[in-house]
Design goal:
Number of helices: 18
Number of strands: 11
Order of helices and strands: HHHHHHEHEHEHEHEHEHHEEHHEHHEEH
CATH architecture of the largest domain: 3-Layer(aba) Sandwich
Structural class: alpha/beta
Number of domains: 3
Distance between the termini: 93 Å
Length: about 450
């Protein structure tokens, strides 16, 4: 027992290393995790006192636990059996496929990443790039929401900046959970986006097993009261108009809704409009080709950021005009209809988004310029814009009347800088190759006009 055993040095080092790893994983790491989790729980508790809608425990659950709960859900288990029978594969193979889907979908929310990092970036980016304007009754409409209901923001999709603006505006209410597409499944975006509570969806997935795993995750999150944000159009608008809604996520919510025992679900229509959509020419080109293959390049984005940063250092105007966000009246699913269909609900929600679409200056200018030259003097400019402002826009105008002239002149200078219009002696004229850009912006408010005239077609 007390005899000396000689072993090579490399073997001794290896044994010590294995012993250290074992001790670390079994004794030290659990204690460290427990220590930091306790600190996190206390921080979240303090944070919840400042939020209108506290972060639900479902969102704070460990990702591993959520994946296990999802793949062992009875409906997912049945889908696994059906997939195995349908494709003549062992059930354990189908189970591993479901596990892979669950790992892909389930986020790993970090309150620190969301409120400590993402909110600061969203606030800085939104206020740096745009003159951000909101409707005066946005806060009032959010205050009407039942504290026990699950809130789902239903938004039109104009730009990738939509995520930033709505995240910032809803920051005092709660943490939003987005559904994001394949574009975000690239390193290093994947881990960052998952830490912000977003979950990935495959837009073109048609397999029954995948759809069931996704449906059950959406239904679990909705039943647990997780505040969500959904783009019913399923992608960016290519022509400036609202795109036809897709029923996927809404149908999952309706399928899992229990009007008697479950939480109520309240949909909040959110309308977003811009004086400058960063991706406008990329979207227009995709629309002209008839596909959704966006031709943006990282080098172009990098040059754009460098150029704008240099402009700011030199004291040149940096903002791209106005970005406006308006919330519509909430829609209670419990009081909507006894058996609402996803299609009827989606169409109704898109109509409500249209009704509160904010009116910014560039779409108004675009309509005027597409008809003919625009007078450069202040009287002619205001007269032309007022001719486009109709009664139905009274509550959706994002720019007060006393600021209209100043904002319009700034917008015209930016359009000139982008080589969309040129100024002659006393008029503004559209450059022929830029008419498609003006149509893109004019289309965003075309629904306000009873006759979709040539300027908005």
């Amino acid at each position: 027992m007390m005899q000396t055993v000689e072993i090579p040095l490399w073997l001794f080092v290896l044994i010590v290393l294995f012993a250290a790893v074992t001790a670390l994983s079994h004794f030290l790491l659990p204690s460290v995790r427990w220590f930091f989790r306790r600190r996190l729980e206390r921080a979240v508790k303090r944070l919840n006192t400042r939020l209108t809608r506290p972060i639900e425990p479902f969102k704070l659950a460990r990702r591993y636990d959520m994946i296990q709960r999802l793949i062992y859900d009875p409906e997912v288990t049945q889908a696994i059996v059906n997939h195995a029978n349908r494709n003549d594969v062992p059930e354990n193979v189908a189970f591993e496929k479901a596990r892979r889907y669950a790992r892909e979908i389930v986020p790993s929310f970090s309150a620190f990443a969301y409120f400590g990092f993402a909110m600061r970036v969203a606030r800085w980016l939104g206020n740096t790039l745009y003159d951000l304007r909101t409707a005066p009754d946005n806060e009032e409409r959010l205050a009407k929401l039942s504290p026990d209901a699950t809130v789902i923001f239903i938004m039109n999709h104009r730009s990738n900046m939509d995520y930033v603006l709505v995240t910032y505006l809803a920051s005092r209410s709660s943490a939003l959970s987005y559904a994001v597409g394949e574009w975000a499944r690239v390193w290093p975006l994947t881990r960052l986006i998952k830490s912000l509570g977003a979950y990935f969806i495959r837009r073109k997935a048609r397999g029954a097993l995948y759809r069931r795993v996704l449906a059950r995750y959406v239904q679990m999150a909705t039943a647990a009261g997780v505040t969500q944000a959904v783009f019913p159009e399923g992608g960016l608008s290519l022509n400036g108009r609202l795109m036809p809604p897709k029923m996927g996520l809404l149908s999952y919510v309706l399928e899992g809704f229990n009007p008697v025992e479950g939480r109520d679900v309240m949909f909040v229509p959110v309308a977003i409009n811009y004086d400058r959509v960063l991706e406008d020419r990329v979207l227009i080109a995709a629309n002209e080709r008839g596909d959704r293959k966006f031709g943006g390049k990282v080098s172009v984005v990098f040059k754009f950021i460098l150029r704008r940063t240099w402009h700011r250092i030199c004291g040149k105007p940096f903002q791209f005009g106005t970005a406006a966000v308006t919330f519509g009246d909430p829609v209670s699913l419990r009081g909507y209809a006894e058996t609402p269909s996803a299609e009827e609900l989606a169409v109704d929600l898109m109509k409500r988004i249209e009704d509160v679409m904010p009116v910014v200056v560039v779409p108004l200018l675009s309509r005027v310029l597409l008809v003919g030259d625009l007078a450069a003097d202040e009287v002619g400019l205001i007269s032309a814009l007022n001719a486009q402002i109709i009664n139905t826009m009274d509550e959706t105008m994002s720019v007060p009347a006393d600021q209209l002239s100043e904002v319009a002149n700034q917008a015209l200078l930016q359009l000139e800088e982008r080589q969309i219009v040129e100024r002659l002696t006393d008029t503004w004229r559209v450059l022929p190759e830029s008419e498609a850009v003006l149509r893109f912006y004019a289309n965003s408010i075309a629904h306000y006009y009873p006759e979709n005239d040539a300027a908005a077609e």
